[in-house]
Design brief:
Elements: H1 4-7, H2 9-12, H3 26-39, H4 57-64, H5 70-91, H6 99-115, H7 124-136, H8 142-168, H9 177-184, H10 188-191, H11 193-197, H12 209-236, H13 243-251, H14 255-278, H15 280-287, H16 291-317, H17 341-344
Helix pairs in contact: 3-4, 3-5, 4-5, 4-16, 5-7, 6-7, 6-8, 8-9, 12-14, 12-16, 13-14
């Protein structure tokens, strides 16, 4: 397996064929986000020495929102940096095997957000989430804020369930893995499309079948692509919360077989997302939304449709899953992971 498995999707799926567009201010944005992350204590020392420091999350933000207002794109990049820092903390020992510790950390985070300040001596994750929440919540409705916090609670539950599995040495069942993976992948990140774009979705839309398929399908595509990119790193530490590892356990596949299955299912899931998007206009008509609500919905749908290819390009250029950090090529003895920065940077 190597990264070409992921990029093969761009030949197989028409919706993924065109390279993502980059925000014109991506490079200075990277310098600002890097300085912010180091100044807040999320990244320590040389950024190239840690998976978080090599992440280049501003590149993902700049690809998902290539025409967004720069300060809003930067806010999303900061949320991404914080979320991946949280993910590293929740996955790694000792917290990665303790549901009690996961719940304790999350309790601190949510309490700090609700009261508006971190407790004295709080760890950087707590102080930073308060800063991000203060920059995000103003101007958003109570419904949006409640939805965002509910999705953080879902993330909390998903990460706690993963911690129990690790402690018990249990591999998630194949049929239950997609839902678990969606919860543990930060569902609140999808809510951030609205404050970044300066819009808010009508609550009625969020309960429709088309919207559910669009959201869950997009989340599955991104999560399963990430599973392929992170498989070697997670396999090396014995973490089975990965679609490849789940298939190995369920069917006795070897890693290349399982990876090929995942790529096939990603391709099919993209088609599900595209089909749901095609029915969205009819859904909006049935809901009798106002022109403003239709415009807001269309903007968020466009961001969701663009996210999978943006994510593929980011995976190709990010150092988070490089050979040193446990990329796919690490599974092939003597093989170096190909450098795909030129492809990923096509406009």
């Amino acid at each position: 397996m190597d990264t070409s498995l992921l990029l093969s999707l761009t030949d197989r799926v028409a919706a993924l064929a065109a390279p993502s567009v980059m925000h014109p201010h991506a490079w200075p944005l990277g310098e600002r986000v890097d300085a912010w992350a180091r100044g807040r204590g999320l990244v320590l020392g040389d950024p190239d020495t840690s998976a978080l420091g090599r992440g280049r999350f501003e590149r993902l933000a700049a690809r998902v929102f290539p025409t967004g207002e720069l300060d809003r794109v930067e806010l999303f990049a900061r949320w991404l940096t914080w979320s991946f820092a949280l993910d590293d903390t929740l996955d790694d020992a000792p917290m990665g095997t303790s549901a009690t510790a996961v719940h304790g950390l999350y309790e601190d985070l949510l309490k700090a957000m609700r009261r508006g300040h971190a407790k004295p001596g709080a760890r950087p994750l707590e102080a930073v989430v308060v800063e991000l929440w203060r920059a995000t919540a103003p101007g958003m409705s109570r419904d949006w804020r409640r939805r965002f916090l509910q999705h953080m609670e879902e993330h909390r539950a998903g990460c706690a369930a993963e911690a129990v599995d690790r402690r018990m040495g249990v591999t998630p069942p194949l049929e239950g893995y997609p839902a678990l993976r969606r919860r543990a992948s930060g569902p609140f990140l999808f809510d951030l499309a609205e404050p970044v774009l300066g819009v808010e979705l009508p609550p009625r839309l969020l309960t429709t079948p088309a919207w559910k398929v669009l959201m869950e399908g997009t989340a599955d595509v991104l999560a399963w692509c990430n599973d392929l990119a992170s498989y070697a790193k997670e396999a090396a530490r014995g973490d089975v919360h990965n679609q490849v590892a789940v298939l190995e356990a369920a069917y006795g596949f070897d890693p290349p077989q399982a990876a090929g299955w995942v790529v096939d299912h990603i391709a099919h899931r993209v088609l599900d997302v595209q089909a749901a998007a095609r029915t969205m206009s009819e859904t909006l008509d049935l809901l009798r939304l106002s022109p403003e609500e239709r415009s807001a919905s269309a903007q968020v749908v466009r961001a969701l449709l663009d996210a999978p290819r943006a994510h593929l390009d980011w995976l190709a250029e990010s150092g988070r899953y490089s050979l040193e950090g446990g990329g796919l090529a690490a599974l092939v003895p003597g093989q170096r992971q190909p450098r795909l920065d030129a492809l990923a940077s096509l406009r």
